[in-house]
Amino acid sequence: MRLNAIKSWIATLNARELLPESLRPASSDASFRRYFRIDDANRASFIVMDAPPPQEDVRPFVHVAKVLGDTGVSVPAILEQDVENGFLLLSDLGNTTYLQLLTPDTAHKLYMDAIEALVLMQAQSQPDVLPEYDRALLLREMMLFPDWYINKHLGLTLNEKQQATLNSIFDLLLANNLAQPQVYVHRDYHSRNLMVLSQGNPGILDFQDAVFGPITYDLASLLRDAYIQWDEELVLDWVIRYWERARRAGLPVNPDIDSFYRDFEFMGLQRHLKVLGIFARLYHRDGKDGYLKDLPLVMEYTRKVAYRYKELAPLVRLLDELENKTPAVGYTF
């Protein structure tokens, strides 16, 4: 049904000389959105986004594409749109994701390109352009962890003491997150949403949920990626390189690198808890089991950060209780 509607819409774009018979799947994501690739008479390729109402709304995508595009980063150009029916025709940023090309040999160059683009985007942030990443939204995201990971995935219910422990950890993370300087936040700035381009690298996709929020969020998404892991020494080096560039660009990062790294880790922990919940929800609610294999890495990130800080020790104990593990000896800062 939707496929026929897409083809009918394409047929109305006469000036584009698109070839309906060349329509083919390009990718799908964790939402209801689907993407198709299509060629024109000159063999140039384009992307058709199918975002079926009422589950999806293309207007945030259209708005954020302009906001980010105006900063100078590489995002798809919106060539045609049918907002009411949820169709967009986009320029094609290719089919090579960072995840496909990342190796120990390519990583430094690719990550430095992504960091340069991130600083460029953040340096032009303005309030009241994107929705605010406020306490309610940050907390709602973390609540996915008890609701979907603990209750649904592990099949457990927190007792009163455990719930109080989790609440105190949430309060600690929220206090840190909300105290950070606020900038444009992509919210999924990672290896599956960054495309390798010959010029203007990286191409940036899946930005429709962008907000105005904590400055370390996208850096944590990038360097503590749920789909690929790097040695701590490399991550620390890239964080420092980001921090140096951000300061040169006039961004209000914490002037103390140790404090900035702590902000990065606490922001990452908020995201890890959210992602554990999201991956569990994708499986249990949406029947998408492909994300289950990524849960162990996200939990590893969660535990490593919690081990490192004395104030997060209650979270380690809670995770041990939930997973029936004996406490491990950790180190703290």
UniProtKB/TrEMBL annotation:
<feature type="domain" description="Aminoglycoside phosphotransferase">
    <location>
        <begin position="23"/>
        <end position="250"/>
    </location>
</feature>
<dbReference type="InterPro" id="IPR011009">
    <property type="entry name" value="Kinase-like_dom_sf"/>
</dbReference>
<protein>
    <submittedName>
        <fullName>Aminoglycoside phosphotransferase</fullName>
    </submittedName>
</protein>
<keyword id="KW-0547">Nucleotide-binding</keyword>
<dbReference type="InterPro" id="IPR002575">
    <property type="entry name" value="Aminoglycoside_PTrfase"/>
</dbReference>
<dbReference type="Pfam" id="PF01636">
    <property type="entry name" value="APH"/>
</dbReference>
<dbReference type="GO" id="GO:0005524">
    <property type="term" value="F:ATP binding"/>
</dbReference>
<keyword id="KW-0067">ATP-binding</keyword>
